[in-house]
């Protein structure tokens, strides 16, 4: 399997967009969403090669678990997974994987404002990798070693949503949105 490299070493690729943080928005409110349908948690699968398939919901759960383990190890409270935030993170990851939007934080404010939660602050981490057997752990390693991403992971947030999407080229896109509504 082909692996790209972002740092000029090894045979794999991990690309991170610098962590994006939004300052508190005084008096910010969002529209209440009357659509209270639960988020579908069916596992989508993408074949990366004749022998490799990723279950994107399993990768999302892995990121969530790893983030919370890290936070607890640093004396921070666990984040609560929110279906509405996850929905926006999934849409962004799917759009990046499908080439509808570039790998970036473009549209972050719109994603956060689409979540029917009144919030004080918000942030986002995104990652792209290819050629790894565990893309979630690879993204976590990259985020923890990046000051901007780590700031978001350790931030005073209480809610999160995680979306993972992969395409037929084996590219895996991960988005994590952090929100503080306290």
Protein architecture, described:
- A hairpin with a 2-residue loop joins strand 2 (45-49) and strand 3 (52-55).
- It is globular, with a radius of gyration of 16 Å.
- Helix 1 (56-73) packs parallel to helix 4.
- It has a five-stranded mixed β-sheet with strand order 1-5-7-6-4. It has a two-stranded antiparallel sheet with strand order 2-3.
- 31% of the residues lie in helices and 27% in strands.
- It starts with 12 loop residues before the first strand and ends with a strand.
- It is built from five helices and seven strands.
- The protein is of the alpha+beta class.
- The protein has a domain at 83-181: CAP (Pathogenesis-related Protein p14a), CATH 3.40.33.
Task: Name its key features.
7 strands, 182 residues, CAP_dom, signal, alpha+beta, two-stranded antiparallel ribbon, disordered N terminus, CAP domain-containing protein, five-stranded mixed sheet, single chain, Pathogenesis-related Protein p14a, CAP_sf
Helix/strand structural class:
alpha+beta
Main sheet characteristics: 5 strands, mixed
Going by CATH, the architecture of the domain at 83-181 would be 3-Layer(aba) Sandwich
* Sequence of strands across the biggest β-sheet: 1-5-7-6-4
Average of pLDDT? 77
| β-strand amount | 25-35%
Q: Return Rg in Å.
A: 16 Å
* Terminus-to-terminus distance: 45 Å
Number of H- or I-type helical stretches: 5
- CATH fold group of the domain at 83-181: Pathogenesis-related Protein p14a
Write down how many β-strands occur, each being a DSSP E stretch of 2 or more residues: 7
List SSEs in N-to-C order. EEEHEHHEHHEE
- Pick out the low-confidence regions: 1-18, 22-52
Based on CA inertia axes, which overall geometry fits? globular
Helix content bin: 25-40%
State the fourth-level CATH superfamily of the domain at 83-181.
CAP
| Level-1 CATH class name of the domain at 83-181 | Alpha Beta
InterPro entries: CAP_dom, CAP_sf
Signal peptide: 1-27
Domain SCP: 65-178
Keywords: Signal
């Amino acid at each position: 399997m082909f692996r790209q490299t972002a740092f000029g070493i090894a045979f794999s690729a991990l690309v991170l967009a610098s962590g994006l943080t939004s300052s508190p928005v005084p008096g910010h409110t969002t529209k209440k969403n009357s659509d209270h349908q639960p988020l579908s948690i069916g596992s989508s699968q993408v074949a990366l090669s004749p022998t490799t398939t990723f279950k994107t919901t399993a990768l999302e759960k892995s990121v969530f678990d790893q983030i919370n383990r890290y936070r607890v190890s640093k004396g921070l409270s666990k984040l609560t997974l929110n279906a509405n935030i996850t929905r926006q993170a999934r849409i962004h990851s799917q759009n990046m994987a499908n080439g509808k939007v570039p790998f970036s934080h473009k549209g972050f404010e719109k994603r956060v404002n689409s979540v029917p939660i009144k919030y004080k602050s918000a942030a986002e981490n995104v990652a792209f990798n290819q050629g790894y057997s565990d893309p979630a752990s690879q993204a976590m390693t990259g985020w923890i070693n990046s000051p901007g991403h780590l700031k978001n992971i350790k931030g005073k947030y209480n809610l999160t949503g995680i979306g993972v999407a992969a395409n037929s080229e084996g590219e895996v896109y991960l988005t994590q949105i952090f929100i503080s509504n306290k």
